[in-house]
Write a structure and sequence with these properties.
Its cofactor is pyridoxal 5'-phosphate. The protein has 17 helices and 15 strands. The protein is α/β, with parallel strands linked by helices. Bound molecules: pyridoxal-5'-phosphate.
Length: about 475
Amino acid sequence: MAHLTNTAPTAELQALDAAHHMHPFTHGAGLADKGVRIMTRGEGVWLTDSEGNRILDAMAGLWCVNVGYGRQELVEAAAAQMSELPFYNTFFQTSHVPAIRLAERLAQLAPDPLNHVFYASSGSEANDTNLRLVRTYWEMKGQPQRKAIISRWNAYHGSSVGSGSLGGMKGMHAQGGMPIPDIHHIDQPNWWSEGGDMTPEEFGVARARQLEQKIEELGPDTVAAFIAEPVQGAGGVIVPPETYWPEIQRIVDKYGILLIADEVICGFGRTGNWFGSQTMGLRPDVMTVAKGLSSGYQPIGGSIVSDEIASVLGGDEFNHGYTYSGHPVACAVALENLRILDEEGIVTRVREETGPYLKERFESLVEHPMVGEAKIVGLMGSIALTPDKAARAAFAADAGTVGLICRERCFANDLIMRHVGDRMIVSPPLVITKDEIDTLIERAWRSLDEAMAEVEAQGLMKPAAVA
Ligand SMILES: *Cc1c(COP(=O)(O)O)cnc(C)c1O
């Protein structure tokens, strides 16, 4: 059997990586010069790298390792399913037990009336499905002119052509001919950076009303759906003001357009409920799931849709699917993962215990001189770095310059926090303990101190001119 554990010196692996491995969302030459960090093991919230460092992973891999690393039950679920039936498709009027049982379980967990699952292998694929699904739904309802999908700037819905178009990342749109037609974007509810003189409550309503303006501008009978993450993740963990979602819900109801909640990060306990839609009080027609569905142990995603959508789509053939839709090994692992989340009370613990504890500790970071606001829902939070809190100022340096310095200091202190521009993000495994939360906050504080010293030394502690 080929063992793929670390047997070579780090430098040799780094050279091979630079020679042959192209990384996602990475400046290739820049990384090759620096040398990639190589992870070798995981246990709970801890990673070990090829140099033997023990790192607290406050990003749960990439928002996905909800039950933590090293869960043997998931290994066994995969092995058992691979022995029994490693693959069969679900195309030609066939099915298998893992796909059936997982669909049943997701229908139980998802809010009513979402009772039907279309499988994919990732969040990107699932959102591609959603794009075609909502348009096909309206075609089958005799309203083929409803093609427009409204999304938000800085939303992240994946990186395929369809899902990347649904997303609102301008840097992504600039490469490779995106967005595709009939996708429109409104502004995100980021009060700290964009709220101006408004209160958060006023700003939440104002940003939600952009949806209504966009619908009116496009023509209400041309709009198919609005898609959004209950709490924007990769866009910087933007927790919307409390007034935002009720107003959005009022608007989608008024115009009868479909609401797609992208639960790829928020789903499966991250916000203290099974789904972020429950925490934020929305009533979606479609939910996108992936990441925490299998805690990242297997690639799997899907769309969970309402009875109404399933019944309309069932009226004709939906010419869409993936070879790995409902992959039996991925479904078996996801089912076991959902069992662990449920039976070990992990979702409840996030809501009642670790979530409130992390909130208290995380919000105390706002006392740091370089931190402007600290926002958190469940176990997903962010802080805004600033040279001038009172003015809610951005840095004069290019966005992300200071964030990157801070991320590097976190890495040096064996803490993985991500930066989005000049916001720092945490989204740890849901099994994190209170002691580990204390360690996270201590390391974050130390990293902020070191980052601020470096920012000052480089003369970067300067606010941008106000536009
Ligand atoms: C990660 C992510 C996706 C894309 O999922 P992939 O599995 O990377 O394709 C979609 N939506 C949200 C909200 C995400 O965070």
